[in-house]
Amino acid sequence: MMKDNIDTKVGVDAMETKFNCRDVQVYYADNHAIKDVNVDILDKTVTAFIGPSGCGKSTFLRSLNRMNDTIPICRVEGDILLDGEDINDAKVDPVQLRAKVGMVFQKPNPFPKSIYDNIAYGPRIHGLARNKAELDEIVEKSLRRGAIWDEVKDRLDAPGTGLSGGQQQRLCIARAVATEPEVLLMDEPCSALDPIATAQVEELIDELKANYSVVIVTHSMQQAARVSQKTAFFHLGNLVEYDDTNEIFTNPRDQRTESYITGRIG
Amino acid sequence: MMSDQHIASAFDRDLEACQALVMKMGGLVEEAIRASGKALKSRDVEEAEQVRRGDKQIDELEEMINTQCATLLALRQPAARDLRTVLSVMKIGGNLERIGDYAKNIAKRTEVLAQMQPIEGTSSAIRRMTKEVESMLSDALDAYIRRDATAANEVRHRDLEIDQMYNALFREFLTFMMEDPRNITACMHLHFIAKNIERMGDHVTSIADQVIYLATGEMPEESRPKSNTEIYQMDGGDGSDEADE
Amino acid sequence: MTDATVQGGAPAPRGSIHSIDARTAKRNRAEKRFRTYGKIAIGIGLFFLVVLFASIIRSGAPAFTRTVVDVPFTLTQTQYEEAEGTLFKTKAYSDFFIAALDNQLREQGVEAEFDADTIERLLGKVGSTIREYYRANENQLGEEVSFSLATSSRVDGYLTGRVTRESMTDSRFLMAADLDLVDRLVEGEIITSEFNWPFITGADSGVDNPGGAGIGASVVGSFFMMLVVLFLSLPIGVAASIYLEEFAVQNRFTDLIEVNISNLAAVPSIVFGILGLAVFIQFMHLPQSAPLVGGLVLTLMTLPTIIISTRASLKAVPPSIREAALGIGASKMQTVFHHVLPLAMPGILTGTIIGLAQALGETAPLLLIGMVGFVARGYPDGFLQGFVEPNSAMPAQIYTWAARADVAFYDKAWGGIIILLIFLMIMNIVAVVLRRRFERRW
């Protein structure tokens, strides 16, 4: 047991840092939602954010691709560096940032368009394809990466909203992948799915980690334990503990983490 | 900050039930050690027979602990301290079961020894050993209940005394056997008994290790003082090679 | 919280579920009562609707029929030249007609005494009608032509029972004695009823000729006004709503704008009328009575409705769609135009059509900007002139007719209402069809 621990630690640390967050604060009007968060999110790694409702994990996730910009009363302070560049710099266009840091949401939210158009939309607006053939190629590649190609290849013109919940969520992941992001943020991607669909999405996340840095917010501690290599525990806006997932789940350092993951009141 | 109770109180009940079984098992095993030592000293075949019969109950308890732990793992997916509790309960259960087996083995050999000429002075030395192991086990289980890593560590160090007692007895048996070959059968039995007690000590040490793991989340480093191994040259064994680590 | 235990222990047994207990029965009765109230309410509504429609149709139907006198008539070349040679040319034609009618009656075996004045009271200026016909169609001389001459609206009224000998006082329009001739004509099957196309296609007539009044010109007026309203209020309203809903920062100023839009929707239409009069006509000197001005005023009135309904349908688009688009790097504008607007489209269109329908039925502001003008000239000369030439609008026309002293215009007013309702219904059906068409599920 201890030996394994040491091995993964070395393996994870060898990865390079994707997001470098220093003293991040997020305010909703007067409400201090995220306090002094320092965290390094690694490339080619699945990082899970866990914590009770309202602990700020989703808020922090949304500040990684500046989705909080859409909320007028929300204010982010501190440094969030993506590959060493401050994402909150005045020079950064959030649209460009979001092409690099894709996002998948809690509820599967395909556009009410065809499956093909759902995937093709991102590449179209970002000008990733010069002609129809290239676009077709991107669509197929993305659907394959989303592990849904075999299920939908015969009905690309069917509406994306007609798929089952799990398929819709994988379609949304495929759509996020289609814009060739480097980081994938997932906000409780399985909370609306049944166990089989959840397992399929989890399997997909595991495959995605070979190419992407994946950050997943989840309410299910089991899910965090299953899919992630690194786990961050948030509580009342603080990042209480950030460590290798197996450390967090077998031997957490902080009493609050322990209370939370063992189902006591924290 | 930390609350001791789960939000799901049934989880607490299940965990407590498992640990209660371990404590019950611990009580039975302590009694078995004590009774087997006493029977050996007093050459009481009747009491030895009782110890042999009592082992069945210990085995059944271990079975129950395993089943309950498996159920708990499947239904509650414990994490962190709860996970360590369940794992340690299973391991301690296994250790106790082995100690019970050794006690039974002592009782068996006691029945054989009762037919033979007693060997002067050795039985009281063995009795001292059993008492020491019994008290170590009792302390280890106390430490378990209190999640007391310090107390558990003390127990681990006391295993050294057991080893030393065993080594002393070993030399004594050699002397007896060299003096008079007719003593060989009895001395061989007594040696196995001493060896069994020494192994009991190792299992108690393993229980103490589990207590430390449970309390701190980490298995203790192998810093436990070992008695020198020179004297084992003849049987080539290490006193703790079968301990669970 | 953790030491919360179930209070009060196990519940008391509730008894058999096969027998309904008093509480349940009471609740069921209450529910039944409520359903009954609902049915009664709907029943009352339907009853009044039926009454309304029945009375509208009953009162309006006469406007769609007219009675005509059918007289076969032959004019020879000699008679034509002779008539053209006299001093009172129309008098001559009138005499020819009287002779023909007399002849016709005699053939049917009906005896009747009448003179030229009676004919004029019953059928209007017959002579000039005939003269104009032959002057335009000289090749018809010598051929037999059947003239369908519309009778005066009082004759319609007499035949439908609205006018009786008792209710009629002798006037310059019609005398009790004239009705004898009507009776004779009916007897001789010379008076017949036919569908009143001139009512649908024609322009308004003078106050003394209710029979000749038509709503066609004001339909055209309304149409041009609606064009103005549609092409101004839809783009302005939708643009304003999108900006307010999606782009504007929330502050005191935008709050103020929002409150004012809601208030504007509640401002009485007459206020918009007087505003239109002051701004468009007195200040900007746009032509009076023109559909352009009417359309501008109605646009002001419709804008709040369209903005409110558009904002509501923009709000109804689930935020998940916006997040999805933003999440894959669409800009705010791309998000709105590619995803939010298409989803809000059915709501926007429905709101717009409802706004247009409201505007179509609006009367008060039109009165103030003079869109009640008597349009003797009928239809506009061309498409563009349609916007600026004086015209009337359907509701204003209906108001004008209803306000005229002559009761014969009452039929016309009711008939106009039927036409107006048909237009409103068509617009509502279009709204429903569009909504069905554009509606997408998400």
From TrEMBL, chain C:
<dbReference type="InterPro" id="IPR005672">
    <property type="entry name" value="Phosphate_PstA"/>
</dbReference>
<feature type="transmembrane region" description="Helical">
    <location>
        <begin position="292"/>
        <end position="314"/>
    </location>
</feature>
<dbReference type="InterPro" id="IPR000515">
    <property type="entry name" value="MetI-like"/>
</dbReference>
<keyword id="KW-0813">Transport</keyword>
<feature type="region of interest" description="Disordered">
    <location>
        <begin position="1"/>
        <end position="22"/>
    </location>
</feature>
<feature type="transmembrane region" description="Helical">
    <location>
        <begin position="36"/>
        <end position="57"/>
    </location>
</feature>
<keyword id="KW-1003">Cell membrane</keyword>
<dbReference type="Pfam" id="PF11812">
    <property type="entry name" value="DUF3333"/>
</dbReference>
<protein>
    <recommendedName>
        <fullName>Phosphate transport system permease protein PstA</fullName>
    </recommendedName>
</protein>
<dbReference type="InterPro" id="IPR024573">
    <property type="entry name" value="DUF3333"/>
</dbReference>
<feature type="transmembrane region" description="Helical">
    <location>
        <begin position="413"/>
        <end position="434"/>
    </location>
</feature>
<comment type="similarity">
    <text>Belongs to the binding-protein-dependent transport system permease family. CysTW subfamily.</text>
</comment>
<keyword id="KW-0812">Transmembrane</keyword>
<feature type="transmembrane region" description="Helical">
    <location>
        <begin position="223"/>
        <end position="244"/>
    </location>
</feature>
<dbReference type="Pfam" id="PF00528">
    <property type="entry name" value="BPD_transp_1"/>
</dbReference>
<feature type="domain" description="ABC transmembrane type-1">
    <location>
        <begin position="219"/>
        <end position="431"/>
    </location>
</feature>
<feature type="transmembrane region" description="Helical">
    <location>
        <begin position="335"/>
        <end position="357"/>
    </location>
</feature>
<keyword id="KW-1133">Transmembrane helix</keyword>
<feature type="transmembrane region" description="Helical">
    <location>
        <begin position="264"/>
        <end position="286"/>
    </location>
</feature>
<keyword id="KW-0472">Membrane</keyword>
